[in-house]
Amino acid sequence: MNFTLTPSDDNAYQNALDEALLSQETAADDDKIDLFLVEADYALKYVNSPYTLDIINDVGLTQEDIAGQYTYTQEIVTDSNGAIKGTSWQATPGLFAYRRSIAKDVLGTDDPAAVQEALSTWDKFYEVAEQANEKGYKMLSGYDDSYRTFSNNVSSPWVDEDMNIVIDDNIQAWIEQTKDFSDKGYNNGSSLWDPQWASDQGPEGDVFGFFYSTWGINFTLLGNALETPLPDGVSATGDPDAFKEATEGNGIFGDYGVVEGPQNYYWGGSWLCAATGTDNVELVRDIMKTMTCDPEVLQTITKDTQDFTNNVEAMEELAADDDFASAFLGGQNHIALFAESAKGIDMSNISPYDQGLNEGIQTAFKDYFNGNVDYDTALDNFYTAAIEKYPDLKRP
After folding, report:
1. Whole-angstrom distance, CA of residue 95 vs CA of residue 345
2. Strand partners, 93
3. Are 201 and 224 in contact (CB under 8 A)?
4. In sequence order, which ranges of 62-189 are alpha helices (DSSP H)?
5. CATH number of the domain bearing residue 13
6. Are residues 129 and 65 in the same domain?
7. Residue 217 and residue 86 share a domain
């Protein structure tokens, strides 16, 4: 089997995939695409196209095979005719990861129940930001930290039936909150994935917490929290003695906790799609069935990686397991919180344009947040870039 890896920056992955799919019919058998990945922000683009196969009628999975999955993970890859055109091994509910030591200083406690009560609404979240500022801390690292919590709770899609771009009230609320936080010094002015954002999660960081979904906590946050990488062969799910020795005094391991935060949300996710024209349907079916439908495999993935996987029963079992805990999160069973959060995921307002418009509005408004342009200029820059990327769209 051959794997092709393409980064997603500047739409590079979709551009390369589109080119390959257009050549699928005439490609040699060994050059044909069998499986490809899509993410939530652009899944519908491929789901509502002739380039993806129905996983039930074409690939051969059964309704019984997929019965244990979280319903939303099927809804997002269901086309306009009701055909399911992909399947995922993961579900991606989000939480708020907070520094326990900072919470103790600001709130007088690091107990998750008490911290959740203090952050249970956006108004309360703002109050804690004020308290944190008085103590010399930032509430968030930068401009984008809370974006997905707002954007994945919108009341309508980015694009209406007349192809007009629609800025939802929840997106507007993110703009207003972020501008206020930026002007008052409640964040460090960072952007997702930049060095400042990463260092803010480490031992020298002064940030109260970070919005993260399942993949982010056990991979990105864990890595950023350690001063030095774990030695080869040492992991959070390996030899506990070796892991304890490697992490003792290394960064702020164990100083993070997680709570639901002010609003239920999700962030990200990847789906396996079978490409029309594949000459390896049986192999595709076997991979999909094993990787996304087998509860034992999925629970093992969670135990090995601490990620949250796509089987309700398997996750509920771990959520109720008193012995299952994350050492990185100070002994919390984060799967219990994820399992509860997953029940509230609503993807009914996604559109094929989400990746470009979500990225575009964050990029355009950074200049507004840092004071380089006014609101109207930032908005105009957003519309201009959006229509350049998607010429079929219109500004209202």
Report:
1. 12
2. 266
3. yes
4. 63-66, 71-75, 100-107, 112-118, 122-134, 147-151, 169-184
5. 3.40.190.10
6. no
7. no
Q: Residue 49 gets which letter from DSSP?
A: S
Instruction: Report pLDDT digits (tens) over 73-108.
Output: 999 999 999 999 999 999 999 999 999 999 999 999
> Is 72 exposed, middle or buried (CB count within 10 Å of its CB: 0-12, 13-18, 19+)?
buried
User: How does pLDDT run across 276-296, given as a tens digit for each residue?
Assistant: 999 999 999 999 999 999 999
CA atoms within 13 A on the CB side of 196: 14
My answer on whether 196 and 237 are in the same domain is yes
175 occurs within a structural domain: no
pLDDT at res. 267: 93
Residue 83 shares a structural domain with residue 207: no
Sort 24 into a burial class: Cβ within 10 Å, 0-12 / 13-18 / 19+. Answer: middle
Give the C-alpha distances (Å, rounded to integers) separating 20 from 26, 179, 192, 197, 285.
10, 41, 30, 35, 21
String of b and e for 180-199 (b: at least 16 CB within 10 Å)? ebbeeebbbbbbbeeeebbb
Would you tell me how many other CB atoms lie within 10 Å of the CB of residue 308? 28
Same domain? 106 vs 71: no
Q: Report if residue 386 sits inside a domain.
A: no
Of the candidates 157, 41, 37, the one whose C-alpha atom is nearest the C-alpha of residue 85 is: 37
Please spell the DSSP secondary structure of 304-358, one letter per residue. Answer: HH---BS-HHHHHHHHT-TT--BTTTTTB-HHHHHHHHHTT---TT--TTHHHHH
pLDDT in tens, 312-336: 999 999 999 999 999 889 999 999 9
In this structure, the chain runs to a length of: 396
Residue 159 and residue 171: Cα distance in Å, rounded?
A: 13
Q: Which residues face 138 on adjacent strands?
A: 207
HSE, side-chain direction, 13 A CA sphere, residue 345: 27
**Same-domain check for residues 36 and 75:** yes
Q: What domain range includes position 35?
A: 9-91+267-324
The answer to whether residue 365 is domain-embedded is no
Residue 118's region, left for phi above 0, alpha for psi from -120 to 50, else beta, is: alpha
Residues 63 and 21 placed together within one structural domain of the fold: yes
Residue after which a domain boundary falls, among 210, 233, 259: 259
Q: Is residue 227 part of a domain?
A: yes
Q: Would the pTM of this model clear 0.90, i.e. be above it?
A: yes
